[in-house]
Each structure stands twice: as structure tokens, then as C-alpha cells.
Specification:
The complex is a heterodimer. By secondary structure, chain A is of the alpha+beta class. In chain A, 35% of the residues lie in helices and 15% in strands. In chain A, strands 2-3 form a two-stranded antiparallel ribbon. Chain B is α+β, with helices and mostly antiparallel strands. Chain B folds into two domains: 99 residues, no CATH class; 36 residues. Chain B is built from six helices and four strands, in the order H-E-H-E-H-E-E-H-H-H. The longest helix of chain B has 23 residues. The chains are: A alpha+beta, B alpha+beta. At the A-B interface, helix 1, strand 1, strand 2, helix 2 and strand 4 of A face strand 1, helix 2, strand 2, helix 3 and strand 3 of B.
């Protein structure tokens, strides 16, 4: 393994300060991007989507739980790691696993 | 681990809730299938739902994991405001990364937001996750301590340090 050089505290600090300039640029660019995001147009949700939650059927409105904003993360399970120890699994994985995990035909997007 | 990795490294939802924002997880797994994993991992704080229709297809998350942001108006009409996926989605999990993809942002005054957006001063609203509901008089000391901390941070920051 080709490791970077070991230097004195002064040289290390100077190298950090050099990189910090670009890190700050990145932070400011991220803030600017977030500001643009807050000006993105929005899209009305017209369909009445239904979910099953811990307390039974739920609408998209129910998912808000009375709050103004909702963040919805969609997840898949990796069949290599069964949800509970000893849970039976097929070679192709459970039906609700990500298609790529089932078929191995696709690598994660970058 | 698959994409339930996010659940294993996500911030306490009380912080998002304090900004009037709910975090929910959805998948094709049934409640029965998910219950064992939730209990084993202690992931009881975030509500998990089973998708029963075209929600995943309609919102671009039927092939791979992704995070959609929605906004509800006073008349209960719902709007989709953002989708983040792939490498962008991998950065999700912290309170700040989640708030940054919402329509209202972090809701702090320093942000460049459209006129009339809800905003409070930087860090003023932040508490420990079990301290958001404490009565105002007890909360006062917390706010004062936080203000001092924010001021120290500002001085440090203005001095050109990180």
C-alpha cells in the first residue's frame, strides 16, 4: 500500500489549511444548491396512495402524522442478510428485495 | 445489510419533528416481515409502511432506494417537492442532510429562502432529543446555554477557522 508521507504538526496543519479552502468552497456550493432546491417547482400529488402501517391502512396524508413536511425513504432488503436469524431465503432472495439483488444483473447507480 | 443500512445510521427523528417534518420508511415488505428486524435492531422510532400500489413506480423508487420529500398545505393538498437517489441518497441520515432536501430547508434565518418561509435564528431550535417537550420556563436555561454556544461558534468561525 502506498501511504502518504508522515510530516511534522506544522506541515500537517499547512496541508490541512490548503485543503480547507476547497472544503469551504464545497460547503458554500452545497448551501447555494440547497437554496435553489427551495425554489424548485412542486408537483401536486393527485392519486390516493395506500400503505399498510403498524396500525393498519394509511394514506399518504396519514404518513405526515399531522406535520407540514414528509420525508419518505424507500428501502430494499439485501437477501444476503435475512431480516431475522434463521429466516428461510431462496437463492433469488425474497420478492420484496431490490431487483438487482435478485438478478445480480445490475450494479448500483453512481 | 442492503438499503436498510440507512435505518442503522439515521439521526433521532425528534430533531426533524421539531422542524415540523416527519420521516417515514416504505418498502414492499409486510409489517410481519419487518417487525422482527425492527425489534432486533431497535428501529422502533421511525414508522415503517408497506407499499400496496404504484407509489414506488410513480415516485421513481421502484428499482433502487431513494428519498422523496413532500409538503402539505393547510387544505391538506400534498405536493412532491424533491427526489434524491443514488450517491445523493447515500448522504442522507443526518438531521441537516434531510432538512436540506426539504422545501422549507433548515428554517433558519441565515438561509437564502423565498420570502415568508418559516425561519428562526441559527441553532436556536435545537435540543437534545428528549428535551423538545419541556415547559418554556425550564427550557429557558437551555436556550441561554445554546445561545452562548452559538456565539462562541460564531466567533470561532469568524476568526477564519473551520
Amino acid at each position: 500500500m502506498n501511504v502518504p508521507p508522515t510530516v511534522s504538526p506544522e506541515e500537517w496543519e499547512s496541508a490541512r489549511q490548503e485543503l480547507l479552502v476547497r472544503e469551504k468552497e464545497l460547503t458554500r456550493a452545497r448551501d447555494a444548491l440547497a437554496a435553489e432546491r427551495r425554489r424548485m417547482p412542486r408537483m401536486a400529488v393527485e392519486k390516493d396512495y395506500r400503505f399498510v402501517g403498524p396500525n393498519g391502512e394509511a394514506s399518504l396524508l396519514d404518513l405526515f402524522d399531522g406535520r407540514r413536511q414528509l420525508i419518505v425513504y424507500r428501502f430494499f432488503m439485501d437477501p444476503r442478510s435475512p431480516p431475522t436469524p434463521g429466516m428461510a431465503r431462496t437463492r433469488s432472495g425474497p420478492a420484496w428485495a431490490a431487483p438487482s439483488w435478485r438478478t445480480r444483473s445490475r450494479t448500483p447507480p453512481t | 445489510m442492503g438499503c436498510s443500512f440507512v435505518a442503522d445510521q439515521v439521526a433521532h427523528p425528534a430533531h426533524l419533528n421539531a422542524r415540523d417534518t416527519t420521516l417515514a420508511f416504505v418498502s414492499r415488505a409486510s409489517q410481519a416481515e419487518i417487525q422482527g428486524l425492527k425489534a432486533r435492531m431497535g428501529w422502533e422510532l421511525i414508522p415503517w409502511y408497506e407499499i400496496t400500489d404504484d407509489f414506488d413506480k410513480d415516485f421513481g423508487v421502484d428499482e433502487w432506494h431513494g428519498t422523496n420529500a413532500f409538503l402539505r398545505e393547510d387544505d391538506d393538498r400534498i405536493y412532491r417537492t424533491y427526489l434524491i437517489e443514488a450517491r445523493g441518497d447515500e448522504a442522507m441520515g443526518s438531521t441537516w442532510s434531510y432538512l436540506d432536501i426539504t422545501a422549507l430547508g433548515r428554517q433558519e434565518e441565515w438561509e437564502d429562502s423565498p420570502e415568508g418561509y418559516p425561519q428562526s435564528s441559527r441553532g436556536e431550535w435545537v435540543r437534545r432529543h428528549d428535551e423538545y417537550d419541556v415547559p418554556a420556563e425550564l427550557d429557558e436555561a437551555n436556550v441561554k446555554a445554546m445561545d452562548e454556544q452559538v456565539e462562541r461558534y460564531r466567533l470561532h468561525h469568524d476568526a477564519g477557522r473551520s
